[in-house]
Amino acid sequence: MSNEKIDRATLTFGDRSVELPVVTGTEGECALDISHLREKTKLVTLDPGLGNTASCFSKITYIDGERGILRYRGIPIEKLVEKVMFIDVAYLLVHGVLPTEEERHNFSQLLNFNSLMHEDMRHFFDLFPHDAHPMHILSTMINAMAAFYPNVDSKSLVENIDQATARVISIVRTMAAFVYKKSIGEPVVYPRHDLSYCANFLNMMFDSPVKPYQIRPETVRLLNILFILHADHEQNCSTTAVRVIGSAQVNLYATISAGISALSGPLHGGANQAVIEMLRTIQEDGDVDKFIKMAKDKSNPFRLMGFGHRVYKIYDPRASIIRRECEQYLKTIHYSDPLLDVAHRIEEAALKDPYFIDHHLYPNVDFYSGILYRAMGIPENMFTAMFALARLPGWVAHWQEMIGSQTKITRPRQVYVGKPLQTSDVFASKNPLLI
Ligand code: CMC
């Protein structure tokens, strides 16, 4: 193909032809603009799962799934995990640039001021069953935030985006730690003004009046890395949920609650918990090859959890970093996890298997993250909540971008394949109420 820029495409349908504009993104990716197709031709497009649909223009995150590239606002994630903290990345996603010293200080202060949830909300935690899944509790609690912080129309939230971001990411962190404390019957630990974002979370999770928690700098560093790697991933399922719901101009909290619900599914963020459950089952069974075979068997619903991705067709760049950090961290804290060995054996077997090679199935972000969370003492049912905490700035950034650029409600079409018009004799004396 020549380098000549193509800005039109011709679609022929029967004896008709229509010209469609072609738009080109920063990195050269072209898209056919079909927004006026129906108006001109009565045709709609069909793309279940939206695997071939760009649903918006976005300036936030760039992924090249063929080359394993992930950048936030143009900055490679490999650089971000080396050089900055999660709160810098939160600021970057929302503002488009990393904060200056002063901006960072102000944002940290906002995080601190907004870390307490309304005290009345604390009582809600008493009403959930103690073994309720944290993701179910979190989505409910976040939705309830609109009732406690009223006057949160889109305009006011966008105008004070730092405040809106800080409130969401700081309060939800407190909520997540409270969910855990409640589930184990311990008193909640309140946030501290003298701790950084990730250290504060670990302290709220693990400090206790009878056993003070020693915050290890290497654990704080690692949590920052994990949170940075999960902070955004362009138009994934939960972010799309946030954008779709936000397009009806509902408040930010309702959209985040929808994002949390979408993320909880095992095909999305719920995969990190499902991976550990799978690794344990394989460890107990001992036969890795049997599970590789099962994953390839189309009559068996079993899939290798933590493998495969809609966009990445090579190794997920987040998974490479997590795998490396996992090995280092386990060594540093002198912790050995037999599930890491099982994970290595699965990866090794899958990467040389023609089925996985042909289907471009590689470990994704969820394959090794659970092993790290386990090593940090995070309980398994909290894994997806960890993903959710990290994804909050991404959701806020996409919601803000959508509010600022999309004036239309998201409302796709369908191809109706149900019954044609039914005649009136379908009612023939079948329903006594009609007689
Ligand atoms: N194990 C075995 N086969 C698989 C797997 C897997 N993990 N993933 C995809 N395939 C096969 C699938 O059976 C299909 O085969 P065929 O074309 O022969 O029928 C082909 O690969 C394409 O699969 P798909 O389901 O059409 O692909 P998708 O892009 O719709 O789904 C996915 C992507 C992530 C949902 C899927 O790979 C999957 O279910 N993976 C396991 C769950 C998982 O790890 N999810 C976390 C995703 S990454 C983080 C996140 O999004 O939160």
Notable characteristics:
binds carboxymethyl coenzyme *A; 50% helix; three-stranded antiparallel sheet; 6% strand; mainly alpha; 435 residues; 6 strands
Radius of gyration: 24 Å
Distance between the termini: 70 Å
The main pleated sheet reads as:
3 strands, antiparallel
Number of strands: 6
- The proportion of residues in beta strands is 5-15%
How would you sum up the global shape?
Answer: globular
Question: Whole-number average pLDDT?
Answer: 94
Question: What does this protein structure show overall?
Answer:
There is one protein chain. The protein is mainly alpha-helical and 435 residues long. Helix content is 50%, strand content 6%. The protein has 18 helices and 6 strands. Strands 1-2-3 form a 3-stranded antiparallel β-sheet. α5 packs antiparallel against α11, α7 (161-183) packs antiparallel against α18 (383-405) and α10 packs antiparallel against α11. The longest helix is centred in the middle third of the chain and has 23 residues, at 161-183. It is globular, with a radius of gyration of 24 Å. It starts with 7 loop residues before the first strand and ends in a 30-residue tail after the last helix. The mean pLDDT is 94. Carboxymethyl coenzyme *A is lined by residues 49, 236, 267-269, 271, 295, 303-310, 359, 361, 364-366.
